Amino acid sequence: MSIQSLPQIPLTRSIHFAEVLMARESITPIDAGCQSYLMHRLEKLCFICEKHNVKGVKNLIARWGNGPCHFAFSGHTDVVPPGPLEKWKSHPFSPVISQNKLYGRGAADMKTGIAAMLAATERAIGDMDPTKVTYWWLITSDEEGEALWGSKWIKEALDSQNVALDMCLIGEPTATSNTGDTIKIGRRGSLSATVTVAGKQGHVAYPKTAINAIHKASDIVQALKNYTFDEGTDDFPGTTLQITHMDTGIFTDNIVPSSVRIEFNVRYSWQFDEENLSTLLIRLIHSADATAIINFSRPCESYLSKPTDKGNCLISCVEKAIKSATGKYPVVSTSGGTSDGRFFAGDNTQVVEVGVPNTTIHQINEHIHLSDLVTLEDIYTDILLQVGKSE
User: Fold this and answer.
1) 36-75 pLDDT per residue, tens
2) Are 280 and 271 within 8 A, CB to CB?
3) What was the pLDDT predicted at 105?
4) What integer pLDDT is reported at residue 3 of this predicted model?
5) Consecutive H or E run containing 316
6) Are strands 189-198 and 259-268 parallel, antiparallel or unpaired?
7) Which helix (H) or strand (E) covers residue 122, if one does?
């Protein structure tokens, strides 16, 4: 860790915590000691911590308080691979501060979110009422990967203890330009599919003796492409389908192909769930080719959290905290890919994502401005005080 220029921004606790976490090479599903460090810090604040190793995935469940309102912070310690090291200005796992910017893998996605909440917790915990709120930390090392044994497993573990979350704040990078300018209250779902189309191989000069699998596949593509999905609303993008790959195997220019594999992905709105969407897709595909074989994969359900008047409203708390820290209210969005919010969201659980800017996530020389991290710490502190402050 080094500082290459005199910083104008004070090195707050969140910056220190971010550097400690970013120095650990926690590429999915490796945790590299991040959660042990968090346990050490949280136990000093009287959290009861449990660390679970599930199929090679590390999960941390920490609890403070016994109040009726169950508030959770969800995050992940894993990061994506850095890519070519020679293209980085500095080593991706040796965080560097230069010109008031923090460089390194995890700077945006999302070790800084965890660092900001850890610092905010230290600041707020003394003014929080343990009889008013039960405060959870739910951290996994399997968000960037298959996500089979991370937050999904944590949610099942909470369910087995009859723990029902009222609110879940997720530290994913949601901002466009500056921390607080955008929050996420929902995400579209995602469903991938593989369609195998069978034909009959033959010589191109004698097409009547063959069945061209590409022609059959084209009919399927057109059936999918021509279907009119919902257009969405101002609050939620509509459903879209994209063909992502087609493969006929080894190519020979005088042979009619005997099979084609089609890959596609659907990003769907809250109007669908996995079951009714897959039923629709099967119907569309089989209308073009009744013999096509369909396999679905990587399902991620959509969700949308709505404001509520019952007790604390997480959306309202976040908006107030952002207005206090930045002077502006955030844009409320549901754009982007999937997130672990889908595992915790429900009719009685509000999920809101708020974090630093996402402009450099997964990129070479990933970085954020220090002011964005300091602002996030302030926002999180305000949220905690609203949720759990003693009267």
Assistant:
1) 999 999 999 999 999 999 999 999 999 999 999 999 999 9
2) no
3) 98
4) 40
5) helix 314-326
6) antiparallel
7) helix 111-124
pTM of the model as a whole = 0.85
Q: Look at residue 2 in the predicted model and tell me its pLDDT.
A: 40
Burial class (CB in 10 A: 0-12, 13-18, 19+), 81: exposed
In the set 143, 301, 372, 382, the catalytic residue is 143
The alpha-carbon radius of gyration of the chain (Å, integer) is: 24
Q: Is 122 a catalytic residue?
A: no
Residue 143 annotated among the catalytic residues of the structure: yes
Residue type, 275: E
CB 166 within 8 A of CB 305: no
Q: What is the rounded CA–CA span in Å between residue 113 and residue 173?
A: 8
How many Å separate Cα 291 from the centre of its chain?
Answer: 36
State both tokens at 181: 């300018």
**Per-residue pLDDT tens for 321-332?**
999 999 999 999
Residues 150, 57 contacting (CB under 8 angstroms): yes
Active-site hit among 78, 122, 144, 378:
78
List the Cα angle 3/7/10 in 5-degree steps: 110
pLDDT < 50 regions, the chain: 1-7
Contact 289, 216 (CB under 8 A): yes
Question: In the Cβ-directed half-sphere of 103, how many Cα atoms lie within 13 Å?
Answer: 17
